[in-house]
Specification:
The protein is α+β, with helices and mostly antiparallel strands. Strands 2, 5, 7, 8 and 9 form a five-stranded mixed β-sheet that branches. The protein has a four-stranded antiparallel β-sheet with strand order 1-6-3-4, with no helix packed on it. The relative contact order is 0.05. It contains 15 helices and nine strands.
C-alpha cells in the first residue's frame, strides 16, 4: 500500500458553531475517471472513496484549521499537482455539497510533471543530436566547432535549471484541465504540455495578452482613483447630512430628523459614531425600541470596545424604561463584561474602575426591582467596594462621595 500525507488548510476565519465538512472526489489524471477504494483519514475520521470517487468528512473542526489528510491506494498513485501542500477549505455541509473538492491523482511516471520533463528531455536530446551532427562535420579546432560544443553544455544546464518551472507548468496543466479557463490559456498550455514553448509564446503574443493586461491595469487605476475621490466626497456629504439631521432635531421636526439620520447612516454603515448619535436622539424622543435596534448594530459591528460598552449600557437603560427587566439585566451584564475587560487591563485607572462600579450598580438595581435581593446584594457589595477605593483616591470629589452614600 502506498501512502501520502497531504496538508489541507482552509481560509483563516472566525470559528463557526456549525460543523465543518470536506466533501470531495478522487479523480485520475489524465483519464479523468473516478477512483474508488481510496482510503482516506483526517483528524481521527476515516472515509473511503465510492464508485463515483466521492468521499465526505463530516463534523470536522472549525473552518480555517489545518488538518492532515492521509490516503492509501493499492497502486502507486500520487497527487497530480507538483507543489505541496494541496489546499482545500472546510465548509458547512450545504456549502461542501455545492463546492466539492477534487483530489486529482496520477500513476507515478505518468503524472504531468513526469510527462512534461520527459518531453523536455526528448526535445533536448533531439537538439543535442542535431548539434552533434554539425560538430562532426566541422574541422577540429575550428571556432565554430568550439561554439557548438559550448552550446551543448548550455542546453544540458538549461534543462536542469528549468525543471522546477516545468513542474509548475505541470500543475497549471492539471488545473486547466479541471477548471473553467480562458480558451486562449488552454491552447497555450497545450503547447507547453507538448514542450513547445515557442508556439505558446506565439499564441499569447498574437492575442496581445500583455497589451490587454496593461490596458486593464490602467483602467483599474483610473477606477481606483475615481473611487477614492468619490469616497472623499461621500464622507463630506454624510457629514453634511448628519448636520441636517441634527438641525431638524433642534427644530423638533422629528420625522424629517429620523429620515435624514437614516439616509446618512445607510450611506456608510461603518461610521458607527453616526449610528450611536442617532440612537441618542431616538432615546431623547423616547423611541426606545428603534434606539435599541440601532444600538444593537453598534454592539455587533463596532470595533471600538468603549462604544460597544456604552451601547450596552444605553440598551439596558432603554429596556428598563420599557419595563423589560430581564433584557435590561442581560444588557447590563454585557456592559459589565466590557468594563471588567478594560479594568483588568488598566486597573489603576479610576475611569475604568468607575465604569465597572456603574455596571455593578445597574445590575444590582435590576435584581432589586425584581425582588431578587440576595443577587442584588452581591452586586451592591462590589459597587460599595469600588466606591470606597475611588473615594479614597479622590477624597474631595462630591460626586464620588454621593455615589458611595447611595451604594450604602
Amino acid at each position: 500500500m502506498i501512502q501520502f500525507i497531504l496538508l489541507f488548510c482552509g481560509f483563516c476565519a472566525t470559528i463557526q458553531l456549525a460543523a465543518q465538512s470536506l466533501k470531495g472526489y478522487v479523480i485520475t489524471y489524465p483519464e479523468e475517471r473516478p477512483l474508488s477504494g481510496v482510503n482516506l483519514s483526517a483528524d481521527g475520521k476515516i472515509a473511503r472513496s465510492q464508485s463515483d470517487g466521492g468521499f465526505w468528512f463530516r463534523g470536522m473542526r472549525g473552518a480555517g484549521e489545518e488538518i492532515n489528510i492521509a490516503f492509501t491506494t493499492s497502486e502507486d498513485y500520487k497527487p497530480a499537482y507538483s507543489r505541496y501542500p494541496v489546499s482545500a477549505t472546510l465548509r458547512t455541509d450545504d456549502t461542501a455539497e455545492r463546492n466539492p473538492f477534487r483530489l486529482v491523482l496520477c500513476l507515478r511516471g505518468n503524472c504531468p510533471a513526469d510527462q512534461i520533463i520527459k518531453r523536455g528531455k526528448a526535445n533536448l536530446n533531439q537538439q543535442l543530436n542535431d548539434i552533434s551532427q554539425k560538430i562532426d562535420e566541422l574541422p577540429a579546432g575550428s571556432q565554430q566547432r568550439a561554439m557548438l560544443e559550448d552550446s551543448i553544455a548550455t542546453l544540458v544546464q538549461r534543462l536542469t535549471e528549468k525543471e522546477t518551472l516545468l513542474r509548475e507548468i505541470s500543475e497549471q496543466v492539471v488545473r486547466t484541465r479541471f477548471n473553467n479557463t480562458d480558451p486562449l490559456v488552454e491552447k497555450a498550455i497545450s503547447y507547453l504540455e507538448a514542450f513547445q514553448p515557442d508556439s505558446a509564446i506565439w499564441v499569447l503574443q498574437k492575442a496581445k495578452v500583455t497589451e490587454d493586461l496593461k490596458a486593464i491595469l490602467d483602467e483599474e487605476a483610473k477606477l481606483q482613483a475615481k473611487q477614492a475621490a468619490l469616497a472623499e466626497e461621500k464622507a463630506k456629504k454624510i457629514t453634511a447630512q448628519m448636520t441636517l439631521a441634527r438641525s431638524f432635531a433642534l427644530e423638533y421636526q422629528l420625522d424629517s430628523a429620523i429620515a435624514a439620520y437614516e439616509i446618512a447612516i445607510l450611506a456608510d454603515t461603518t461610521q458607527h459614531e453616526n449610528v450611536y448619535d442617532y440612537a441618542e436622539f431616538l432615546k431623547d424622543i423616547k423611541a426606545y425600541k428603534k434606539a435599541i435596534y440601532w444600538l444593537t448594530k453598534v454592539t455587533q459591528n463596532d470595533e471600538e470596545v468603549w462604544r460597544q460598552g456604552n451601547a450596552f449600557l444605553m440598551i439596558g437603560d432603554l429596556y428598563k424604561e420599557l419595563g423589560d427587566f430581564d433584557a435590561a439585566t442581560n444588557a447590563f451584564e454585557k456592559y459589565r463584561e466590557v468594563c471588567q475587560r478594560d479594568y483588568s487591563k488598566q486597573y489603576a485607572e479610576d475611569y475604568y474602575k468607575n465604569t465597572l462600579a456603574i455596571s455593578y450598580e445597574r445590575i444590582g438595581t435590576m435584581y432589586q426591582a425584581q425582588g431578587k435581593f440576595d443577587s442584588a446584594l452581591v452586586y451592591f457589595v462590589e459597587r460599595s467596594r469600588l466606591g470606597k477605593e475611588l473615594y479614597a483616591d479622590n477624597p474631595k470629589s462630591e460626586s464620588l462621595k454621593n455615589g458611595l452614600a447611595i451604594s450604602y
